[in-house]
Design a protein that fits this description.
The complex is a heterodimer of chains A (about 300) and B (about 325). By secondary structure, chain A is mainly α. Helix content of chain A is about 70%, strand content about 0%. Classes of the chains: A mainly alpha (about 300), B mainly alpha (about 325).
């Protein structure tokens, strides 16, 4: 843009380019710090998964009411205290982990299958491109949480409907990424070679195009997972998510909010659970992105679309 | 520049059309038809039929869709089933707190996020960079409603500095309004500032590696001038984009956080409408929010004109 030409700039970095150069001073330190923090994320996530999987063993019955011990502070009997009808908060938080992770995984599965399918078709077939992507644009013209609320209004409250609503919200985000990759891959020599050898469209898409556009999708999957956990919690908190009797972090917070003065543990512990889970997913996502998709570092990704 | 403007405006039309269609389809997916919801559980089959005819619900779907577009063009969003008044009026009543909250939160998010990103980018991997980026990562991992609850716990319940909840409208004094919106705006803005900081940082890092920065330093410009004038202006495109996205995200966030702080805005309106199955209100709020979203995107596109002369000559 200004006067200096490229080769000159490349010859000079040791002289003046401090900020750019500082990266190269400790090349080993950066990935190490990153990797260690990614390991922390993985461990947190494993912990949450274990808690969710072993919920019946760890937590006992999340619906048993100990009416004598309503709003009891954390104690030996109730590690994280009890709620307004005497249910054990630890047990509900552990079952909440199970629900959040199940919803998150199901949303990822749904959004990936639908998004990859739409993205492949739109990217590969010129005729479908416009139609499919205009629908995706239309869905993305709503803030994620608002579209999710509207879908829940139409579908009615249930765990399955929460998955469907959040899945629909995040499908276009996946579709866009896949389409962008397909547009590039479609023009590559190996696809042309396979086509010349007489491969059918289906075989071409499944064996050559799809595998080559998966790495950005894998990266996106962890962010969609985080967004799904966040959106589920927000929907349930608002009272339009999973039905109130299901133990979910959002539901616990939504009831706990009313007793925030007498029983802050109703807010603090499920809140910490949500935060650590999302943090873990973001850390793993950042790590995956650095490993698989170095070009996209620092790019937005709509992971904040949720709440 | 004029063609750029014209192209941006024209590009809005198909999106608006799709948005209107999505809103239409959405409400036609609802179980049971609006007529029986409006008529209530005790209405006879004849009453429901008459109402269906009155509302045009017995017409074929394509005809209904065309009528829907025509109504939207006239700015008619229909009547609320429960509130028994036009949806547009109900929305106009509730729009003030939501827009104020969103704007205040965006302001906070930018005021924290942009400087944090620049400071981080000036010395990448320094301890202040790592501390700031850790903070940003924590920021994007806290749900805004949770942060809101924690702020209430600390500043309202423990310290008593702010009202626990509620909203003081502008007509009762702007200062009171600001006081009632400060905690929710912090809850929204801090979370979003993490994202803005991350984007600003990476945009600045990219720009600082450009040859013209080297040229600036070589001719002896102060580091301050290089970073804050030359680099920042060129890093503004991704940053402004993320600020626009942030406003839209915060608008959605405001709808959630309003529940935490009992602020009577669009969020409370749509949630109570969902609980009462008041479909026209849900549809209206969704459409209005999408409209704001589209306008913001347009403004972001137009702001590129100010930051990148190349756009002007396209």
């Amino acid at each position: 843009m200004t006067g200096v030409s490229r080769p000159e700039a490349q010859a000079l970095p040791a002289l003046g380019a401090r900020p750019g150069g500082a990266r190269r001073v400790r090349p080993w330190a950066v990935p190490l710090v990153r990797r260690r923090i990614v390991v922390v994320g993985g461990l947190l996530l494993a912990g949450a998964t274990a808690a969710g999987a072993l919920a019946p063993v760890l937590g006992g019955d999340p619906t048993r009411m100990d009416v004598a011990a309503r709003l009891a502070a954390p104690s030996r009997a109730h590690w994280l205290g009890t709620d307004d009808v005497g249910r054990d908060v630890w047990s509900r938080v552990v079952y909440g982990a199970r629900l959040s992770l199940l919803v998150g995984a199901a949303v990822v599965a749904l959004a990936l299958v639908a998004g990859v399918l739409c993205g492949l078709l739109a990217g590969y077939y010129r005729r479908l491109d416009n139609a499919i992507m205009r629908v995706m644009d239309g869905l993305m013209a709503f803030p994620a949480i608002v579209l999710a609320i509207a879908l829940m209004a139409v579908l009615g409250p249930s765990v399955l409907n929460v998955v469907v609503a959040i899945g629909v919200v995040y499908t276009p985000r996946v579709a866009r990424i896949v389409r962008a990759s397909v547009l590039v891959i479609r023009e590559t020599a190996y696809v042309e070679a396979a086509r010349a050898l007489g491969a059918s469209d289906g075989a071409l898409l499944a064996r050559h195009v799809l595998p080559n556009c998966l790495s950005p999708v894998v990266v996106q999957a962890s962010f969609v997972f985080a967004a799904a956990v966040l959106t589920e919690a927000a929907l349930s908190f608002l009272g339009v998510g999973v039905p109130p009797y299901v133990p979910s972090w959002g539901n616990i917070l939504s009831e706990g909010r009313l007793y925030i003065q007498q029983a802050p543990w109703l807010v603090l512990y499920p809140g910490a659970a949500i935060m650590l889970t999302i943090l873990a997913l973001n850390l793993v996502g950042d790590g995956l992105r650095d490993a698989l998709d170095p070009k996209a570092r620092g790019l937005a990704s709509d992971k904040q679309g949720a709440a | 520049m004029k063609t750029y403007l014209a192209r941006r405006l024209l590009a809005l039309i198909p999106v608006a059309l799709v948005v209107a269609t999505v809103a239409f389809v959405l409400m036609h997916l609802a179980p049971g038809d609006p007529a029986s919801v409006i008529a209530g559980p005790y209405a006879s089959a004849d009453d429901v039929k008459r109402l269906q005819h009155q509302l045009g619900l017995d017409a074929p779907l394509p005809a209904q869709l065309v009528r829907w577009y025509a109504r939207l063009l006239r700015g008619d969003l229909g009547d609320s089933i429960f509130l028994r008044r036009p949806v547009l009026e109900a929305i106009a009543d509730r729009v003030e707190p939501t827009l104020l909250l969103t704007s205040l939160a965006t302001l906070l998010a930018v005021a924290i996020g942009v400087p944090a990103g620049i400071v981080s980018a000036r010395r990448p991997n320094s301890s202040e960079d790592q501390a700031l980026m850790l903070f940003a990562l924590l920021g994007i991992s806290v749900p805004n409603f949770l942060l809101g609850l924690l702020l209430i716990l600390v500043f309202s319940v423990q310290l008593g500095w702010f009202p626990v909840a509620g909203y003081s409208p502008l007509e009762h004094g702007a200062l009171q309004t600001l006081r009632s919106l400060l905690l929710p705006a912090v809850a929204l803005g801090v979370v979003q500032s993490g994202l803005i900081a991350r984007i600003t940082r990476s945009a600045m890092l990219d720009v600082l590696r450009e040859p013209f920065i080297l040229a600036g330093r070589a001719k002896g410009l102060a580091e301050r001038t290089v970073v804050w004038k030359h680099a920042l202006k060129n890093a503004m495109i991704p940053t402004v984009t993320i600020i626009g996205v942030s406003f839209a995200v915060l608008l959605g966030g405001a709808i959630v956080v309003e529940t935490v702080f009992n602020i009577p805005g669009l969020g409370r309106l749509i949630i109570s409408a969902v609980l009462r199955r008041d479909y026209p209100v849900i549809q209206g709020v969704v459409l209005c929010v999408a409209a704001v979203y589209m306008v913001i995107n347009l403004l972001v596109d137009l702001s590129y004109l100010a930051f990148d002369p190349r756009v002007r000559y396209q």
